[in-house]
């Protein structure tokens, strides 16, 4: 190893180049983006729900980045238009995700706006989809003898309902559902918004 | 690569006391150069290809920006041709005993507020035009045309067939829109004459308002509060049955069609986990009540083109079909203007593109197969991907179903 210095310099240069191209330049590009018109900041409850989303690791199975029709039929699946950078203005850290074990959730609030539906689904996904591989989250709920006024009771098919008791959402579940229902970026993206154009093709989307 | 780099430093014969280990200078093996060059070329090509794609994307959107004001500059005559001529005919003579003429009509020649109010709210009752009584449904354009567009088409209609040169402005339409905001369709000529312009003269009256199942409190509870696993319909389908994304618009679908779909969810002939759960928790009578409720519901359109489809191609398919692809016109079955034909042919107007496209794809993929007559399977198979998006986007631009499409009893 008699060329430590040139090797070291080369390695650092490669790292610096990658940082410049993949971190600094894109950062400069999106830093000045204002939120997409129509995007609103999260409410207190939604932010708490977002923290639950992050801590439960939903991001490992769900992306939040519908792709353009040139790339995938996400729009036809009802997942919404391709996202643009300014859609994530209030998301820190963003929950883009890399895996789609489950469906994309960027617009789940438009596609599944029902609070009651989400409660059932989070408590036991198999109560709705017998083939679902999503984990159940029973610890976001509590089993009570009787619902108190103001409680959100989870509607369950007999098979999954505890006998003679009711399942009630804990505040964490209610916040999480508030967050999920807020995920609705179906407003139009301005034509000038920064986006992934890497798959655009001439003519109509395939 | 590792193999190539392995040193073959065979020691010279016998160990030598003075030997200092050293590294021979060896050239980098040629294949490493090749690989490096290939990678560099690959990188360059990818960059070039990406730049090309980004250029295409930018250009398409730039064209879109240019097009938008141009589309907004559609003349009144163009809007008339696209939006009115299918019913009132290109020369505005109407269709005997079904659709009234505009040419020579009192409604067109009366106060400018009359035409604007008709365009904003539609008509659902009998009217008298030129001594003949018509009793059909004129759709409301409030949710699909802007104030400026309504002003232009109203001006065109009045200048061409009403003999009035005065121009109707967007500001005038805005005022008229606010005037009866939130009301439903005009219940015939009598109401228009009474409320908007007495100069319309004697007009047939609509008779007493029909109070149907709308007000059934049990049905309303299911719609708004739900019961157990029958989550409130409105929590997904919207407060006015208008739908969204891939949740279908229900307002204005034929009653018989809704009953059949709900039954098919129960028996599993039509598959969708959420709807199977909901429909299974309802009784027969409740399903019928809900079907009656939604078929009579009117809701402004909330659909808009969102799949990047070619809307004029979609219009072509909907109105005329495409015989080169063996596609009959959608409206030959789904009724003129896509308002549906009770009981078997659902309305398509103002349906959300993601839902329409997903259903068309489901017929091709076998995901939807619950019709005995199977008319859609063939139609859907003959649509290309681009056509599917085009027609779905076009249908989203249409005014919603004007009135109760219940079967007449």
UniProtKB/TrEMBL annotation, chain A:
PROSITE patterns: CYTC. The keyword Transmembrane helix applies. This is Cytochrome-c oxidase. The lineage of its organism: Bacteria, Pseudomonadati, Pseudomonadota, Alphaproteobacteria, Caulobacterales. It holds the Pfam family FixO. InterPro entries: Cyt_c-like_dom (IPR009056), Cyt_c-like_dom_sf (IPR036909), Cyt_c_oxidase_monohaem-su/FixO (IPR003468). The keyword Metal-binding applies. Residues 44-184 form the Cytochrome c domain. The chain crosses the membrane at residues 7-28. One of its GO terms (molecular function) is metal ion binding. It comes from the Bacteria. It comes from Brevundimonas subvibrioides. Keywords: Heme, Iron, Membrane, Metal-binding, Transmembrane, Transmembrane helix.
UniProtKB/TrEMBL annotation, chain B:
The chain crosses the membrane at residues 30-48. One of its GO terms (molecular function) is electron transfer activity. PROSITE patterns: CYTC. Residues 71-161, 202-298, 309-399 form the Cytochrome c domain. Keywords: Heme, Iron, Membrane, Metal-binding, Transmembrane, Transmembrane helix. InterPro entries: Cyt_c-like_dom, Cyt_c-like_dom_sf, Cytochrome_c_Oxidase_Subunit. This is Cytochrome c domain-containing protein. It comes from Brevundimonas subvibrioides.
């Amino acid at each position: 190893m008699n060329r430590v210095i040139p090797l070291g310099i080369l390695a650092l240069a490669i790292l610096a180049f990658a940082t410049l191209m993949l971190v600094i330049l894109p950062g400069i590009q999106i830093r000045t983006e204002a939120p997409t018109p129509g995007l609103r900041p999260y409410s207190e409850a939604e932010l708490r729900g977002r923290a639950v989303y992050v801590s439960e690791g939903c991001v490992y199975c769900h992306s939040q980045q519908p792709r353009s029709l040139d790339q995938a039929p996400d729009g036809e699946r009802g997942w919404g238009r391709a996202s643009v950078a300014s859609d994530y203005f209030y998301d820190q850290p963003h929950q883009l995700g890399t895996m789609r074990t489950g469906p994309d959730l960027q617009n789940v609030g438009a596609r599944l706006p029902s609070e009651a539906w989400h409660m059932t689904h989070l408590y036991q996904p198999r109560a709705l989809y017998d083939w679902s591989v999503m984990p159940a989250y029973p610890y976001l709920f509590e089993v009570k003898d009787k619902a108190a006024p103001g409680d959100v009771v989870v509607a369950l098919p007999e098979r999954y309902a505890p006998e003679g008791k009711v399942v009630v959402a804990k505040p964490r579940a209610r916040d999480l559902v508030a967050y999920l229902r807020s995920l609705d970026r179906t407003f139009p993206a301005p034509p000038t918004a920064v986006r992934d154009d890497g798959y655009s093709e001439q003519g109509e989307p395939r | 690569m590792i193999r190539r780099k392995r040193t073959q430093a065979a020691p010279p014969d016998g160990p030598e006391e003075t030997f200092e280990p050293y590294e021979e200078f060896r050239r980098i093996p040629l294949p490493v150069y090749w690989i490096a060059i290939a990678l560099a070329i690959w990188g360059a090509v990818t960059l070039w290809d990406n730049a090309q794609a980004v250029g295409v994307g930018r250009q398409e959107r730039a064209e879109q920006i240019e097009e938008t004001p141009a589309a907004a500059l559609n003349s009144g005559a163009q809007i008339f041709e696209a939006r009115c001529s299918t019913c009132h005919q290109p020369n505005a003579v109407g269709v005997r005993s079904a659709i009234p003429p505009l040419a020579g009509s009192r409604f067109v020649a009366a106060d400018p507020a009359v035409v604007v109010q008709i365009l904003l709210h539609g008509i659902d009752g009998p009217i008298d035009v030129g001594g003949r009584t018509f009793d059909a449904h004129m759709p409301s354009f409030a949710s699909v045309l802007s104030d400026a567009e309504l002003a232009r088409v109203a001006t065109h209609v009045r200048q061409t067939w009403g003999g009035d040169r005065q121009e109707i402005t967007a500001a005038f339409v805005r005022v008229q829109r606010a005037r009866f905001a939130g009301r439903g369709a005009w219940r015939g000529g009598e109401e228009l004459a009474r409320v908007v312009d007495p100069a319309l003269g004697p007009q047939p009256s609509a008779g007493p308002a029909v109070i149907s199942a709308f007000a059934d409190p049990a049905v309303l509870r299911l719609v708004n509060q739900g019961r157990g696993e029958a989550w409130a319909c409105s929590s997904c389908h919207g407060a006015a049955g208008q739908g969204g994304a891939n949740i279908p618009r229900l307002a204005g679908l034929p009653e018989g069609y809704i009953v059949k779909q709900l039954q098919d969810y129960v028996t599993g002939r039509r598959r969708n986990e959420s709807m199977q759960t909901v429909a299974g928790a309802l009784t027969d009578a409740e399903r019928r009540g809900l079907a009656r409720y939604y078929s009579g519901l009117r809701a402004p359109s909330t659909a808009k083109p969102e799949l990047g489809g070619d809307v004029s191609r979609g219009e072509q398919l909907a109105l005329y079909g495409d015989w080169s692809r063996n596609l009959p016109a959608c409206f030959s079955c789904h009724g003129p203007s896509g308002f549906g034909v009770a009981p078997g042919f659902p309305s398509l107007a103002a349906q959300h593109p993601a839902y329409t496209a997903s259903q068309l794809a489901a017929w091709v993929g076998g995901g939807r197969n619950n019709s005995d007559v199977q008319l859609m399977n063939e139609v859907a198979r003959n649509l290309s991907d681009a056509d599917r998006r085009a027609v779905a986007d076009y249908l989203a631009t249409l005014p919603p179903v004007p009135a109760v499409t219940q079967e007449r009893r």
